[in-house]
Amino acid sequence: MNIGEIARRAGVSRSTVSYALSGKRPVSDETRRKIQDVIDELGYRPNASARALANGRTSTIGLVFPPAGNHYTGMQLDFIGSVVEAAAAHDYDVLLSPSGVDSDRSFQRLLGERRVDGAILMEIRLKDDRVDHLAELDFPAVAIGRTAHPESGWWVGLDHTALAAACVHHLADLGHRRVAFVNRPEQLLRAGYESAHRGLEGFTKAAAERGLTVRTYCCGDDAASGQACLERILHDDPATTGLVTLNEAALGGLYRGLAQAGRHVPRDFSVTGVVAGRWAETVTPQLTAADVPAEEMGRRAVDLLIERLDHPGAPPRHHLLAPPISLRASTGPAGGTPSA
Amino acid sequence: MNIGEIARRAGVSRSTVSYALSGKRPVSDETRRKIQDVIDELGYRPNASARALANGRTSTIGLVFPPAGNHYTGMQLDFIGSVVEAAAAHDYDVLLSPSGVDSDRSFQRLLGERRVDGAILMEIRLKDDRVDHLAELDFPAVAIGRTAHPESGWWVGLDHTALAAACVHHLADLGHRRVAFVNRPEQLLRAGYESAHRGLEGFTKAAAERGLTVRTYCCGDDAASGQACLERILHDDPATTGLVTLNEAALGGLYRGLAQAGRHVPRDFSVTGVVAGRWAETVTPQLTAADVPAEEMGRRAVDLLIERLDHPGAPPRHHLLAPPISLRASTGPAGGTPSA
DNA sequence: GATGGTTGTCGAACCGGTTCGCGTGAAGTG
DNA sequence: CACTTCACGCGAACCGGTTCGACAACCATC
Fold first, then answer.
1. Inter-chain residue contact B69 with A52, CB threshold 8 Å
2. Looking at CB atoms within 10 Å, which of A14, B271, B280, B281 has the fewest?
């Protein structure tokens, strides 16, 4: 069931079989047919490892997975799904690499052992060792997210600054004056996660421009933390009438906290933020939010990577996306009927 | 940066380097040290393709991903995460394979081209070609889910029949007499998805035992479908006071439908079902449900697969799990205060 | 009729590891 | 001291593909 066996049965040499399959040199119709018959009969498929060894390409891309053990968000699922799908369309497989506990080790596996032709990185930090390291090696990689110095890199990113600002303006336009910001967990902020930083920055600036009174919070990536966070918000400033969040996983908990505090959304309290569209629609009332186009981002990341693989030395490219806010049902004018 | 280069610089033969690394034959401390020094200096790592070609193992397992293009559920994300993590603990990588549009093709890629040593299958059907095919080839695979004839296979499954029945008994014990069942989408049911079938079966049987009046529904995997489904339920039988669902993705929509119909959960209407624990906690009120131990299942699937890889010819093993119902806040006695 | 360009095929080398058989020198044994 | 045993290292073959150079056969040209 290897190429030699096929060659023997077809009565030709191994190289001829190879050329018949790749088309890189002419092969007569008759031999091609003979070879194809044998292949069909035996169900032969060339061994991927051997092929990878010979031509130096694995036809596999690595997807560097966010730290495991923690909670995954729906957005990440959407990224993974779309990356796998887009890669399949280009005849690439996707190898998942947990950048968890021992990220160096799995990085070494991917790159050092040449398991993949290129990589897609998720959960980028403003100062990201992985990105720097790959750039230094000139290893084909595309980031979903951008570092503090994105000019020279390959990435597809979300303009979190603008999106968070848009959320603030949306609330300000509705008359809200006291607004809270619910960020990703503190450890991620401290680690320099770009969405957490840029989102916070955009929120803070825009709030200052509009003269809002704000408080900012970090919140764990789960419902219980969201609920606790909301309790703190209302405890710290009961006059708060709106919040902006980047924390998809905490959303359900934030809603629960509001319900338990007797604040009706959107009459008493407005909620908005940056969330993957599909998940914004699972809560009631549906979330008015800047919908993260996770599928598009995954697809574009793959397209960029393929382009980079096909044209080594091409100048860096990137896409910065800033989807508009989708108006749904979770925001309304300030000063509805105050409860309690 | 290949093994020959290391050998030259260390002044030994290639085979000696190989033995120094693998430990399969004795190597003197001195040469081992010399070799190690060179390796450390150059940051050498053996090429994975070459190694795979030589010893016939790729150290990679394939995870056959659910049909793409559709919506993914949170449960699937949990499976993926835990599989990746567990595989990493055994020094295996995970290759994602979309079993989407052209499932034969990606199957051929995985198996025919020998990209993986074994596979884990998700979204099993009662009569599943993939499972049969792999069993026929004696290819090391483990299913997350079980077919109609699971005796001879390797799998880790959930006792959907028992879980759905437990949900029914829970509602019946609370006095509910008219109950609906919200299943996965109709196309999945027709395709023979085991959770949809066994869940329906368990629900129907238990309801008959308890003499309940029931209706069963299929529902798309998204919030909008959930909402529509709930409207249909109340339209078909306004006296319905409870539902059991297997459809995690529709949950948010079901809740919204209830809210819009003015039915308070759990006072007027009880909701329960089979859902991954983390997602049961994102809705308000939190869902009383049989928590799908997705992480445990993923981990166990990997452990079984590794065992099968390490001991070819070992007799089939499997795990059937039936987690208890976690009492949360979405169910209550029938005949609270009827609204409207 | 010598010259030149295609077309189709083959053998050999190569990709970067692993593994087997053999040779050598040193240590252990009676 | 001859004889086994063992530790250690080397060279060669192999895994299953791809690719290069060579060559033969065929056709067209001047």
1. no
2. A14
Partner-chain contact B53 A49, CB within 8 Å: yes
- Chain B residues close to A94, C-beta within 8 Å: 95-96
Taking the CA of residue B257 and the C1' sugar atom of nucleotide D18, their distance in angstroms comes to: 61
Domain A3-46 has CATH 1.10.260.40: yes
Where are chain A's structural domains?
3-46, 60-158+294-321, 160-292
> Domain A160-292 falls in which CATH fold?
Rossmann fold (3.40.50)
Residue A9 CB closer than 7 angstroms to strand C? no
Please state the pTM of the whole predicted model. Answer: 0.93
A48 touches chain B (CB under 8 A): yes
Looking only at the bridges linking them, the beta strands covering B242-245 and B270-276 are parallel
> Which residues have C-beta within 8 Å of that of residue A55, sequence separation ≥ 6?
none
b/e code B264-297 from CB counts within 10 Å (16+ = b):
ebbebbbbbbbbbbbbbbbbbbbbbbbbbbbbeb
CATH H superfamily, domain B160-291: Response regulator (3.40.50.2300)
A-chain residues within 8 Å CB-CB of B109?
48, 93
Please tell me the class of the A60-158+294-321 domain. alpha beta
Q: What's the rounded Cα separation, in Å, for the pair B340 and B332?
A: 19
> What is the C-alpha separation between B132 and B124, in angstroms, rounded?
11
Q: Under the phi-then-psi rule, with left for phi > 0, alpha for psi from -120 to 50, and beta for the rest, what region is B127?
A: beta
DSSP output for A295-312: HHHHHHHHHHHHHHHHST
What is d(CA A182, CA A219) in angstroms, rounded to the nearest whole number?
6
Cβ–Cβ < 8 Å for B310, B293: no
- Could you give the CA distance from residue B272 to residue B241 in angstroms, rounded to a whole number? 12
CA distances from A265 to A191, A256, A337, B224 (A): 33, 11, 11, 19
B322, two tokens: 């039936």
pLDDT grade for A105, boundaries at 50, 70 and 90: confident
Dump the DSSP string for A222-271.
Answer: SHHHHHHHHHHHHHH-TT--EEEE--GGGHHHHHHHHHHTTPPTTTT-EE
Residues B238-247: tens digit of each pLDDT: 999 999 999 9
Say what the alpha-carbon torsion angle A73, A320, A212, A228 is, to the nearest 10 degrees.
Answer: 10
- How far apart CA A6 and CA A132 sit, in angstroms, is 46
Rounded to whole angstroms, the Cα distance separating A212 from A146 reads 29
Tell me the average pLDDT across B321-338. 88
A339 band by pLDDT with thresholds 50, 70 and 90: very low
The region, left, alpha or beta by phi > 0 then psi within -120 to 50, assigned to residue A75 is: alpha
Decide whether B3-46 matches B60-158+294-321 in CATH topology: no
Q: Cis (ω within 30 of 0) for the bond into B285?
A: yes
What confidence tens digit (pLDDT) does each residue in A167-208 have?
Answer: 999 999 999 999 999 999 999 999 999 999 999 999 999 999
- Residues lying close to strand C (Cβ under 7 A), chosen from 13-52 of chain A, are 13-16, 19, 25-32, 50
